[in-house]
Amino acid sequence: MDTIEKLKDSYNLLTEQLISRAIKGDFDYVYTFLRGADFFGGYINRLLHQGNKSLFRCDAGRNRVGVDYNGNMYACSVYLGNKDFLVGDVDNGFNENRKTFEKSTINNERCKNCFAKYICAGECYAISYQSTKELSNPNELICELKKHLIKLAIYFWNKLKKEHYEAYKNIPWNLYQKGGFLAAFFR
After folding, report:
1. What is the pLDDT of residues 77-102, one digit of tens each?
2. Residue 149 pairs with which residues in a beta bridge?
3. Residue 105 to residues 1, 21, 89, 102, 112: CA-CA distances in angstroms?
Protein backbone atom coordinates (compact mmCIF):
# COMPACT_ATOMS: atom_id res chain seq x y z
CA MET A 1 0.00 0.00 0.00
CA ASP A 2 1.44 3.37 -0.96
CA THR A 3 1.64 6.38 1.33
CA ILE A 4 -1.38 8.18 -0.10
CA GLU A 5 -3.58 5.12 0.46
CA LYS A 6 -2.33 4.77 4.03
CA LEU A 7 -3.13 8.40 4.61
CA LYS A 8 -6.63 7.98 3.18
CA ASP A 9 -7.19 4.94 5.42
CA SER A 10 -6.11 6.96 8.45
CA TYR A 11 -8.56 9.72 7.56
CA ASN A 12 -11.31 7.13 7.08
CA LEU A 13 -10.69 5.95 10.66
CA LEU A 14 -10.59 9.53 11.92
CA THR A 15 -13.93 10.26 10.25
CA GLU A 16 -15.55 7.33 12.03
CA GLN A 17 -13.99 8.52 15.32
CA LEU A 18 -15.40 12.02 14.80
CA ILE A 19 -18.85 10.61 14.03
CA SER A 20 -18.68 8.39 17.12
CA ARG A 21 -17.68 11.34 19.31
CA ALA A 22 -20.49 13.49 17.91
CA ILE A 23 -23.03 10.72 18.54
CA LYS A 24 -21.81 10.48 22.14
CA GLY A 25 -22.21 14.25 22.52
CA ASP A 26 -18.47 14.92 22.76
CA PHE A 27 -18.76 18.08 20.71
CA ASP A 28 -15.68 19.65 22.31
CA TYR A 29 -13.53 16.95 20.68
CA VAL A 30 -15.13 17.50 17.27
CA TYR A 31 -15.03 21.28 17.56
CA THR A 32 -11.36 21.26 18.60
CA PHE A 33 -10.56 19.23 15.51
CA LEU A 34 -12.49 21.59 13.23
CA ARG A 35 -10.63 24.59 14.60
CA GLY A 36 -7.21 23.06 13.89
CA ALA A 37 -4.96 23.52 10.90
CA ASP A 38 -5.71 20.15 9.29
CA PHE A 39 -7.20 20.29 5.78
CA PHE A 40 -9.89 17.77 6.67
CA GLY A 41 -11.17 19.72 9.67
CA GLY A 42 -11.21 22.78 7.47
CA TYR A 43 -13.31 21.03 4.84
CA ILE A 44 -15.83 19.79 7.40
CA ASN A 45 -15.99 23.29 8.80
CA ARG A 46 -16.16 24.93 5.38
CA LEU A 47 -19.08 22.78 4.25
CA LEU A 48 -21.44 24.22 6.82
CA HIS A 49 -19.88 27.28 8.37
CA GLN A 50 -19.23 29.42 5.37
CA GLY A 51 -22.21 28.57 3.23
CA ASN A 52 -20.45 30.39 0.42
CA LYS A 53 -18.20 29.31 -2.38
CA SER A 54 -14.52 29.44 -1.46
CA LEU A 55 -12.65 30.90 -4.40
CA PHE A 56 -9.17 31.15 -2.89
CA ARG A 57 -7.16 28.63 -0.88
CA CYS A 58 -5.62 31.39 1.22
CA ASP A 59 -5.22 35.14 1.27
CA ALA A 60 -1.63 35.19 -0.04
CA GLY A 61 -0.94 38.35 -2.00
CA ARG A 62 -4.47 39.63 -1.55
CA ASN A 63 -5.00 40.30 2.17
CA ARG A 64 -1.64 39.19 3.51
CA VAL A 65 1.98 39.67 2.52
CA GLY A 66 5.36 38.81 3.97
CA VAL A 67 7.89 41.63 4.26
CA ASP A 68 11.65 41.07 4.26
CA TYR A 69 14.24 43.24 6.05
CA ASN A 70 14.68 45.37 2.89
CA GLY A 71 10.98 46.25 2.76
CA ASN A 72 10.18 43.95 -0.16
CA MET A 73 6.68 42.49 -0.01
CA TYR A 74 6.02 38.87 -1.01
CA ALA A 75 2.65 37.22 -1.56
CA CYS A 76 3.59 34.34 0.74
CA SER A 77 5.97 34.37 3.68
CA VAL A 78 7.10 30.87 2.70
CA TYR A 79 8.80 32.37 -0.35
CA LEU A 80 10.44 35.49 1.05
CA GLY A 81 13.25 36.31 -1.36
CA ASN A 82 11.72 34.50 -4.37
CA LYS A 83 11.15 37.02 -7.18
CA ASP A 84 8.12 35.07 -8.47
CA PHE A 85 6.33 35.94 -5.22
CA LEU A 86 7.48 39.58 -5.07
CA VAL A 87 4.40 41.82 -5.13
CA GLY A 88 5.93 45.19 -4.27
CA ASP A 89 7.75 47.05 -1.54
CA VAL A 90 6.79 49.21 1.42
CA ASP A 91 8.00 52.44 -0.22
CA ASN A 92 6.28 52.10 -3.61
CA GLY A 93 3.33 49.82 -2.86
CA PHE A 94 2.20 46.89 -4.97
CA ASN A 95 3.52 46.00 -8.41
CA GLU A 96 1.85 44.28 -11.38
CA ASN A 97 2.80 40.81 -10.08
CA ARG A 98 0.17 41.18 -7.35
CA LYS A 99 -2.56 40.67 -9.98
CA THR A 100 -1.29 37.09 -10.36
CA PHE A 101 -2.52 36.37 -6.83
CA GLU A 102 -5.91 38.01 -7.39
CA LYS A 103 -6.93 35.24 -9.80
CA SER A 104 -8.66 32.26 -8.30
CA THR A 105 -6.78 29.02 -8.75
CA ILE A 106 -10.04 27.16 -9.37
CA ASN A 107 -10.24 28.53 -12.90
CA ASN A 108 -7.28 26.51 -14.15
CA GLU A 109 -7.93 23.60 -16.51
CA ARG A 110 -7.58 20.86 -13.89
CA CYS A 111 -9.90 22.48 -11.37
CA LYS A 112 -12.63 24.19 -13.37
CA ASN A 113 -14.85 21.09 -13.72
CA CYS A 114 -14.01 19.46 -10.38
CA PHE A 115 -16.91 18.67 -8.02
CA ALA A 116 -14.84 19.89 -5.08
CA LYS A 117 -13.53 23.20 -6.41
CA TYR A 118 -15.66 25.46 -4.20
CA ILE A 119 -14.77 23.55 -1.06
CA CYS A 120 -11.11 22.95 -1.89
CA ALA A 121 -10.58 26.41 -3.41
CA GLY A 122 -7.53 25.28 -5.35
CA GLU A 123 -3.95 24.57 -4.54
CA CYS A 124 -1.73 26.50 -2.15
CA TYR A 125 0.44 28.77 -4.26
CA ALA A 126 3.61 27.70 -2.45
CA ILE A 127 2.88 23.97 -2.77
CA SER A 128 1.92 24.37 -6.41
CA TYR A 129 5.07 26.34 -7.15
CA GLN A 130 7.24 23.81 -5.31
CA SER A 131 5.68 20.88 -7.20
CA THR A 132 5.12 22.25 -10.68
CA LYS A 133 6.92 25.63 -10.87
CA GLU A 134 3.52 27.20 -11.63
CA LEU A 135 1.39 29.08 -9.13
CA SER A 136 -1.97 27.50 -9.86
CA ASN A 137 -1.23 24.02 -11.16
CA PRO A 138 -2.19 21.51 -8.47
CA ASN A 139 0.01 18.64 -7.36
CA GLU A 140 -1.78 15.45 -8.47
CA LEU A 141 -1.25 13.51 -5.23
CA ILE A 142 -2.38 16.39 -3.06
CA CYS A 143 -5.38 16.87 -5.33
CA GLU A 144 -6.30 13.19 -4.97
CA LEU A 145 -6.03 13.42 -1.18
CA LYS A 146 -8.06 16.63 -1.01
CA LYS A 147 -10.88 15.10 -3.07
CA HIS A 148 -10.94 12.12 -0.72
CA LEU A 149 -11.06 14.41 2.32
CA ILE A 150 -13.90 16.44 0.84
CA LYS A 151 -15.87 13.27 0.16
CA LEU A 152 -15.26 12.25 3.78
CA ALA A 153 -16.41 15.67 5.00
CA ILE A 154 -19.63 15.28 3.01
CA TYR A 155 -20.01 11.74 4.37
CA PHE A 156 -19.50 13.05 7.94
CA TRP A 157 -22.37 15.52 7.70
CA ASN A 158 -24.66 13.18 5.76
CA LYS A 159 -24.11 10.31 8.22
CA LEU A 160 -24.95 12.53 11.16
CA LYS A 161 -27.93 14.14 9.51
CA LYS A 162 -29.50 10.96 8.12
CA GLU A 163 -28.66 8.40 10.79
CA HIS A 164 -27.99 10.42 13.95
CA TYR A 165 -30.13 13.48 13.61
CA GLU A 166 -30.08 14.27 17.35
CA ALA A 167 -26.30 14.58 17.25
CA TYR A 168 -26.50 16.54 14.01
CA LYS A 169 -28.97 19.10 15.33
CA ASN A 170 -27.17 19.45 18.65
CA ILE A 171 -23.88 20.51 17.14
CA PRO A 172 -23.96 24.12 18.37
CA TRP A 173 -21.99 25.59 15.48
CA ASN A 174 -24.05 24.02 12.70
CA LEU A 175 -24.97 26.79 10.29
CA TYR A 176 -26.41 24.61 7.54
CA GLN A 177 -29.14 26.34 5.58
CA LYS A 178 -31.48 24.71 3.09
CA GLY A 179 -31.14 25.95 -0.43
CA GLY A 180 -27.44 26.85 -0.24
CA PHE A 181 -25.09 25.79 -3.00
CA LEU A 182 -24.16 22.69 -0.96
CA ALA A 183 -27.75 21.64 -0.37
CA ALA A 184 -27.53 18.95 -3.05
CA PHE A 185 -24.95 17.10 -0.96
CA PHE A 186 -27.31 16.86 2.00
CA ARG A 187 -30.51 15.49 0.47
Report:
1. 888 998 888 999 999 998 887 777 77
2. none
3. 31, 35, 24, 9, 9
